[in-house]
UniProtKB/TrEMBL annotation:
It comes from Propionivibrio dicarboxylicus. GO terms for molecular function: cyclic-guanylate-specific phosphodiesterase activity. One of its GO terms (biological process) is cellular response to nitric oxide. This is PAS domain S-box-containing protein/diguanylate cyclase (GGDEF) domain-containing protein. Residues 157-209, 290-342, 412-464 form the PAC domain. Coiled coil: none annotated. Residues 84-138, 336-385 form the PAS domain. Residues 638-892 form the EAL domain.
Amino acid sequence: MLVVGLGLVGGTWVASALDLFSAEWDVRIASMPMALNPPWGAIAALLLASALAFYLRRLRLNNADAKALTIREDLERHRRIEDWASKLFQALDQNPATIFITDAEGRFEYVNDSFSQTTGYVREKVLGQTMALLSPSDDASAPYAAMWAAARRGEVWKGEAQTRRSDGTLFWERVLFSPLKDRDGHITHFVAIKEDISELRSVMSRLQESEGRFRAATAAMVEGLVVIGADGRILFANPAAEAFLACPPGGLVDVRAAEVRIDRLREDGTLYAPEDYPLTRSLRDQCELRGLVFGLRDAQGDVRWLEFNSSLLRMEADGAPGLVATFTDITERRKTEAQLRLAFEAIRQSGEGILMTDARHIILSVNPAFEVKTGYAADEVLGKTPAFLASGRNDADFYREMQARIEETGAWQGEIWNQRKNGEAYPEWLNVSGVRDNDGPPGNYVYIYSDMTERVEAQQRIEMLAHHDPLTGLPNRVLLRDRVEQAMAQANRLQSRVALMFLDLDRFKTINDSLGHPVGDELLKEAVNRLKRCVRESDTISRQGGDEFMIVLNDVRDGDAVSRVAEQIQQQMREPVDIEGHRLSTSFSIGVSIFPDDGQDFDTLLKKADTAMYHAKEAGRNGHRFFTEQMNRRVVEHLTMETQLRRALENNEFVLHYQPQMDLGEGTIVGVEALIRWNSREHGLVSPARFIPVAEESGLIVPIGAWVLREACRQAREWQVAGIDPFVMAVNLSAVQFRHHDLINSVINALVLSDLDSQWLELELTESILIQDAEATLEAIRRLKSLGIKLSVDDFGTGYSSLTYLKRFSVDKLKIDQSFVRDLARDPEDAAIVRAIIQMAHSLRLRTIAEGVETEELASLLRVFHCDEIQGYWLARPMPAREMEDFLRSHQTRSVAGRQGVLL
């Protein structure tokens, strides 16, 4: 707008004006700002205002200055000044910009016509007043204060400020406010050029409001919205689009759509190539896309599926079109569609017969299972009602009640008899459900038919499994409890008794493990057949699991009747059983408890019958025992001792005694056997015969045995360090301890902690260990032998005495049981057995040791039989470690005469 000023003022007279006052006044045109656009208009107006300011200054020349000029020069100059001043005033008055000039104190010296028009102030009334006339009286005056402060510092100020009109109203102006200095650098005037921008600000405000409404509307959209220019750069993106494309707010602006770093997937899950990306394709081909589905995969691998729609947008009349694109998140819709497809497929593949009807119960569709169950094809039933399935077994009242219930509640379920196409009637469980649209009445009904025949059979199978043993078909413990409670109730009424028999099949585990589970199963079935021959129909036989059975004898008059049944069972079991080429013999150990004598409830009777059965086993199996209070006391004692054994481990109440072993040929001590003793705080010294069986049954033998190993190895090494000649330390291993998975580690730990060489450790095994789980036993023995440990078989001759096992397990020594040694001198059979054991062992390159040698005579006989070692009271009783050390030292300094085994 300000270029008009330059057009009004001719170039020639402007140049003349500059020549005129530049000599008198330092006007630095090059340093003047060009704040108002276009800049040349501002420069022109500023030049004109500066020239006018020079003229005004000249009019105020004091008398002293005037006298310094010659009259001629003064007249000439005044003429020239008046000439171009007139033109300056004319140009400035015609300039559309508001222009005013003030003196150094801010008082108006000149205002143009535009000033009067925009402010309403008459020029003559304004001159001489200060700029405060235009400044607002409220906070809007801050720009004027800043403008004035900058100008006083000699700086040019440019900006926007509100101006007060003569009627008090305010309007906005763009302002250029510049100081003018003389040659000495003093500010003499201020020039202001203003432009009314009220309308522009109003338009901009409306645009901003419109843009705000647009951004607010697009920000509230759940759909993504982007505007893309013809060059492919994104001009605008709403928050939803930024979220879809995993970009921060504003992060998409000025970015090419194809450069957004996110995986784009086709519907088949493959990645789009950059050139095939929908946005790129829409721009490239200048085409609009509708309903295109693609996926966006984020950094975590999650995929969001979007529906893409685009429209071309021509932003300039002659320019290439841009693009407006929307993205709608259809992830949940796709999931819903997938669920609907899954539901449809589930109905189609369901094993239940399903049909769907309209509101009038007209059949619209049926699934394949319905066709299979009823024999009707789909096209035979469509358009009918389900009533055509009626078999006639349900009367009219049944169907009326059923229909009334459906109309009242929209659902019905119950058992119904239908008829197949072939005329066969069958029971079904029918479930009718109404399908409602919103809150209205059902628009459709779903009928689900479940064949009750299959369900009843399944229930029977479940009932059988829940209350019967699957192998034998006998009642299990759940059903047995019910039978016992019924029998006890009847016995109370009849004043009779009920016997509960607990049966355990003897040696079943050995048969099952050695011959296999199929043979074991057949043996159990045959045992059941024989048990059934021994009881009445009113009695109950139950299998508890494994090889344990229970028999409930109703209406028992006395114990003799129970004994006769038990003896009959044993008689039946005496006949061998032939299974898969194996001829097997077994028996039952039976415990008996009597209601009401031994208990008033099932659990008490069961516990006491179990206790009696274990006593039958201890008595040698193949027999029966009745529960007595003495048995109960023994059970209580057993539990008490188990508790005390646990406490004994914690309180270190166990000690080891040692019994020496002598080489018969050399007469030297070649080993000692470590024997555990329990020095109880409550009972004193407890015999191993009392507590070892309890420890084995409770599993405490494992930690106790580990302690024995550690202590025996420690003591053996301690004697070696004390100067006693090394000898073998023999330690007994229990069968329970040997089967424990941590045995090898316990042995290694004992050797490492004691620093004892493995050649001085001998482990004594019983024959029962060798015959149980032969492969696992063989592997354990191999590992022990690989450590350099010696192995001996304890109590040889009292068990199976299998030569095959001796050869296979590579033991080092046989220990002849004292039952053969004790009567060796008087019993020729014992002598023959001992001689045979020694000869057999030597043929297998095994050493022999006889235990229980209590007389010199026995020692002499064993020497004659060429037995290698002896152990017994004749040599020494078991003794504590300190006494054993004295014994060893005394024998270390003496020799043993070979004649008649006499010690010298």
